[in-house]
Amino acid sequence: MVTDRCSTLGLLYVLGGELAYRDAAGWKILFLCLQILDISSHWTQMHSSLALGAHHKSAEGNAGKNFLVRWFYSYYYFFGYLCVGAEFTYVLLYVKSRLLAAKDASFLLSLANWSLLVTTPGCVAKQFVNLMQLCSSCYAIARHDAELRNLVRKQS
Asked: What's this model's pTM, rounded to 2 decimal places?
Protein backbone atom coordinates (compact mmCIF):
# COMPACT_ATOMS: atom_id res chain seq x y z
CA MET A 1 0.00 0.00 0.00
CA VAL A 2 2.83 2.40 0.78
CA THR A 3 4.42 1.75 -2.62
CA ASP A 4 1.08 2.30 -4.36
CA ARG A 5 0.45 5.57 -2.49
CA CYS A 6 3.97 6.85 -3.12
CA SER A 7 3.90 6.03 -6.83
CA THR A 8 0.51 7.70 -7.26
CA LEU A 9 1.68 10.77 -5.35
CA GLY A 10 4.85 10.97 -7.43
CA LEU A 11 2.91 10.72 -10.66
CA LEU A 12 0.42 13.37 -9.55
CA TYR A 13 3.28 15.64 -8.49
CA VAL A 14 4.99 15.30 -11.87
CA LEU A 15 1.69 15.87 -13.67
CA GLY A 16 1.01 19.00 -11.65
CA GLY A 17 4.34 20.44 -12.67
CA GLU A 18 4.16 19.25 -16.27
CA LEU A 19 0.66 20.49 -17.03
CA ALA A 20 0.98 23.70 -14.99
CA TYR A 21 4.08 24.52 -17.02
CA ARG A 22 2.34 23.89 -20.33
CA ASP A 23 -1.21 25.08 -19.72
CA ALA A 24 -2.39 26.78 -16.55
CA ALA A 25 -1.67 26.83 -12.84
CA GLY A 26 -5.11 25.33 -12.13
CA TRP A 27 -3.72 21.89 -12.99
CA LYS A 28 -1.23 22.14 -10.13
CA ILE A 29 -4.05 22.86 -7.65
CA LEU A 30 -6.15 20.01 -9.06
CA PHE A 31 -3.35 17.46 -8.74
CA LEU A 32 -2.46 18.72 -5.27
CA CYS A 33 -6.09 18.21 -4.19
CA LEU A 34 -6.04 14.71 -5.69
CA GLN A 35 -2.87 13.94 -3.72
CA ILE A 36 -4.47 15.14 -0.48
CA LEU A 37 -7.65 13.18 -1.19
CA ASP A 38 -5.71 10.00 -1.99
CA ILE A 39 -3.59 10.06 1.16
CA SER A 40 -6.31 11.22 3.55
CA SER A 41 -8.97 8.80 2.30
CA HIS A 42 -6.65 5.81 2.51
CA TRP A 43 -5.21 6.82 5.88
CA THR A 44 -8.65 7.26 7.46
CA GLN A 45 -9.83 3.99 5.87
CA MET A 46 -6.87 2.16 7.42
CA HIS A 47 -7.31 3.86 10.79
CA SER A 48 -11.05 3.20 11.01
CA SER A 49 -10.61 -0.46 10.02
CA LEU A 50 -7.77 -1.03 12.46
CA ALA A 51 -9.86 0.52 15.24
CA LEU A 52 -12.40 -2.23 14.57
CA GLY A 53 -9.67 -4.87 14.38
CA ALA A 54 -10.40 -5.68 10.75
CA HIS A 55 -8.64 -5.48 7.40
CA HIS A 56 -9.39 -2.29 5.44
CA LYS A 57 -10.69 -4.26 2.44
CA SER A 58 -12.77 -6.77 4.40
CA ALA A 59 -16.53 -6.74 4.77
CA GLU A 60 -16.12 -6.35 8.55
CA GLY A 61 -13.79 -3.38 8.11
CA ASN A 62 -16.29 -1.70 5.79
CA ALA A 63 -19.46 -2.49 7.72
CA GLY A 64 -21.59 0.61 8.11
CA LYS A 65 -19.64 2.56 5.51
CA ASN A 66 -20.95 4.16 2.35
CA PHE A 67 -22.39 1.63 -0.11
CA LEU A 68 -19.92 2.70 -2.82
CA VAL A 69 -16.99 1.97 -0.52
CA ARG A 70 -18.43 -1.46 0.33
CA TRP A 71 -19.08 -2.13 -3.36
CA PHE A 72 -15.60 -0.90 -4.31
CA TYR A 73 -13.93 -3.43 -2.01
CA SER A 74 -16.43 -6.25 -2.70
CA TYR A 75 -16.38 -6.36 -6.50
CA TYR A 76 -12.87 -6.77 -7.82
CA TYR A 77 -13.76 -5.94 -11.43
CA PHE A 78 -15.14 -2.59 -10.28
CA PHE A 79 -12.14 -2.13 -7.98
CA GLY A 80 -9.75 -3.03 -10.80
CA TYR A 81 -11.36 -0.76 -13.39
CA LEU A 82 -11.31 2.23 -11.05
CA CYS A 83 -7.74 1.69 -9.87
CA VAL A 84 -6.33 0.89 -13.30
CA GLY A 85 -8.44 3.64 -14.87
CA ALA A 86 -7.06 6.23 -12.46
CA GLU A 87 -3.42 5.21 -12.91
CA PHE A 88 -3.68 4.92 -16.68
CA THR A 89 -5.40 8.31 -16.87
CA TYR A 90 -2.44 9.87 -15.07
CA VAL A 91 0.06 8.11 -17.31
CA LEU A 92 -1.88 9.04 -20.45
CA LEU A 93 -2.08 12.68 -19.40
CA TYR A 94 1.69 12.70 -19.01
CA VAL A 95 2.19 11.00 -22.38
CA LYS A 96 -0.24 13.43 -24.00
CA SER A 97 1.59 16.43 -22.56
CA ARG A 98 4.83 15.09 -24.07
CA LEU A 99 3.21 14.31 -27.42
CA LEU A 100 1.87 17.85 -27.70
CA ALA A 101 5.45 19.10 -27.79
CA ALA A 102 6.53 16.52 -30.38
CA LYS A 103 6.16 16.92 -34.11
CA ASP A 104 4.46 14.30 -36.27
CA ALA A 105 2.83 12.55 -33.31
CA SER A 106 -0.76 12.92 -34.47
CA PHE A 107 -1.45 9.16 -34.50
CA LEU A 108 -0.07 8.67 -31.00
CA LEU A 109 -1.89 11.76 -29.77
CA SER A 110 -5.12 10.43 -31.24
CA LEU A 111 -4.49 7.06 -29.58
CA ALA A 112 -3.88 8.77 -26.24
CA ASN A 113 -7.09 10.79 -26.58
CA TRP A 114 -9.14 7.67 -27.39
CA SER A 115 -7.55 5.81 -24.50
CA LEU A 116 -8.43 8.70 -22.18
CA LEU A 117 -12.08 8.28 -23.18
CA VAL A 118 -11.93 4.76 -21.71
CA THR A 119 -9.86 5.48 -18.59
CA THR A 120 -11.08 8.91 -17.45
CA PRO A 121 -14.54 7.74 -16.26
CA GLY A 122 -12.78 5.21 -14.02
CA CYS A 123 -10.49 7.92 -12.70
CA VAL A 124 -13.37 10.28 -11.94
CA ALA A 125 -15.36 7.49 -10.28
CA LYS A 126 -12.29 6.54 -8.21
CA GLN A 127 -12.03 10.11 -6.90
CA PHE A 128 -15.71 10.01 -5.94
CA VAL A 129 -15.19 6.68 -4.14
CA ASN A 130 -12.16 8.20 -2.38
CA LEU A 131 -14.34 11.09 -1.22
CA MET A 132 -17.02 8.72 0.06
CA GLN A 133 -14.30 6.62 1.70
CA LEU A 134 -12.93 9.69 3.46
CA CYS A 135 -16.35 10.81 4.71
CA SER A 136 -17.53 7.37 5.87
CA SER A 137 -14.19 6.56 7.50
CA CYS A 138 -14.16 9.88 9.38
CA TYR A 139 -17.67 9.11 10.56
CA ALA A 140 -16.63 5.59 11.64
CA ILE A 141 -13.66 7.00 13.58
CA ALA A 142 -15.87 9.59 15.29
CA ARG A 143 -18.47 6.94 16.14
CA HIS A 144 -15.78 4.63 17.56
CA ASP A 145 -14.28 7.46 19.63
CA ALA A 146 -17.72 8.40 20.96
CA GLU A 147 -18.40 4.78 21.94
CA LEU A 148 -15.08 4.59 23.79
CA ARG A 149 -15.75 7.88 25.57
CA ASN A 150 -19.23 6.74 26.59
CA LEU A 151 -17.81 3.45 27.88
CA VAL A 152 -15.24 5.30 29.99
CA ARG A 153 -17.95 7.58 31.39
CA LYS A 154 -20.12 4.58 32.33
CA GLN A 155 -17.21 2.98 34.18
CA SER A 156 -16.44 6.18 36.14
From this structure: 0.84
